[in-house]
Amino acid sequence: MSKRYLAAAAVAAATLLAVSMPANAAPGQALKLRNGLTLYIPIKWRVYGMGTDAVQIVTGKCAKPQGWGTPECDAFYVFGPKYIKHGREWFSPYTGKDPFYTASDVQPCPVNKKWGERIGPKVTRGLRQVGAGHKAAYNAWQSTCASYSSTKVLARFTQREWYLPKSKILVVDQWNTPGLADTLENADWS
Fold first, then answer.
1. pLDDT tens profile 2-20
2. For residue 112, what is the enclosing H or E element?
3. Are 95 and 56 in contact (CB under 8 A)?
4. Range of lowest pLDDT (65-69, 123-127, 162-166)
5. Is-contact 119 99, C-beta < 8 A?
6. Which of 14, 32, 53, 170 would you call most buried, defined as having the most Cβ atoms within 10 angstroms of its Cβ?
7. Residue spans of alpha helices (H) in 90-188
8. Cα dihedral 169, 179, 161, 163 sign
9. How far is CA 32 from CA 14, 54, 55, 68, 97, in A?
10. pTM (two decimals)
C-alpha cells in the first residue's frame, strides 16, 4: 500500500471517530448490578456498595459517602427488594404512587444537612427505557428544603426515580445527575 493511501485511510478513520463519538465522551467502567443489569458509567464516578441491596454511585463532591440520604453528597442510588419493601416511609413498599422515602420523620436536605427536605408533589410521570427490552416507571418529584424552624423554602431539587418492578430495581437521583438518563437508556441486560 502506498503512504498516500495509508494517510488518507488514517484521516478517514479519525474523522469517523470524531463524528461518531460525542465531544463529552469519557472512558467508562462497567457496573454490574442485580438481575443482569449493567450500567456503563464514567471512570470518575465512584461506586460504594451498601450490602447486596443498595449501591451508592458518587458522581461529584462528597466528603463521606454513607449510603442513602447522605447530605451534601452528589450521588444516585440503585436499590433492590429490601429497600423497595420499606420505600414508603418504612411502613410499606415503594410502588411509585408516592416518592421513595425511607423514614417517617424529616430527613436532611441533599444540598444542606442543616435543612430538612420535603419530597413532592410529582411533576413528571411516564415510562423510560433502561436498556433494550426494559421500560421503567419514571417519576420526578418537585421537592424543597427548609430550615427545621420555618417553612421558608431555601432550596429546590427534583427527586427522579426509575422503577423496574419485575427486576426489583429502583434508581433514585436527587442531584439531576448529568448523563444518568442516557446511562440508564444505554444499559445492557444479560
1. 433 333 333 333 322 233 3
2. none
3. no
4. 65-69
5. yes
6. 170
7. 180-185
8. negative
9. 31, 13, 11, 19, 28
10. 0.82
Sign of the dihedral through C-alpha 57, 97, 139, 107 = negative
CB distance 141 to 162 below 8 Å: no
20 grid coordinates: 461518531
**What does the DSSP 8-state code read for residue 122?**
E
Using CA atoms of 137, 138, 142, 147 in order, give the dihedral in degrees to the nearest 10: 80
Q: How many helices (H) and strands (E) does the chain have?
A: 3, 10
DSSP sequence for 7-65:
HHHHHHHHHHHHHHS-TT---EEEEE-GGGEEEEEETTSEEEE-STTEEEEEEEEESS-
Q: C-alpha cell of 31?
A: 457496573
Give the number of other CB atoms < 10 A from CB of residue 73.
Answer: 23
